[in-house]
Amino acid sequence: MKALRALRASRTDVEALDLTADRLRRLQDAFAKAGDAARVRADRTGPVRPEGQQAYRPQEPGPRGREAGH
């Protein structure tokens, strides 16, 4: 009887591992598909800013550097 219970328990463990492996494969496929779709969208939209152009950053008020002491 003990051997039969052990066999059932081991089969359940193997089935659980198989199920986990299947879920991991499905997750991997889903993330790969999402990554591919994101790359396609990024390629379609092109760069956000033309190369060499910097983002607008307003100057902070108040003196800085050498000007602060004058």
Can you walk me through this structure?
The structure is a single chain. The chain has 70 residues and is mainly alpha-helical. The longest helix has 44 residues, at 2-45. The protein has one helix spanning 2-45. The chain has one helix and no strands. The mean pLDDT is 76.
Brief summary of the model shown:
With 70 residues, this protein is an all-alpha fold.
Strand proportion, as a percent range, falls in under 5%
Give, in order, the helices and strands: H
The average pLDDT score comes to: 76
Tell me the distance between the termini: 94 Å
Low-confidence stretches are none
**What is the percent of helical residues?**
55-70%
Strand count, sense and barrel status of the largest sheet are:
none
The beta-strand count equals 0
Number of helices: 1
Radius of gyration: 30 Å
Structural class: mainly alpha
So what's the overall shape?
A: elongated
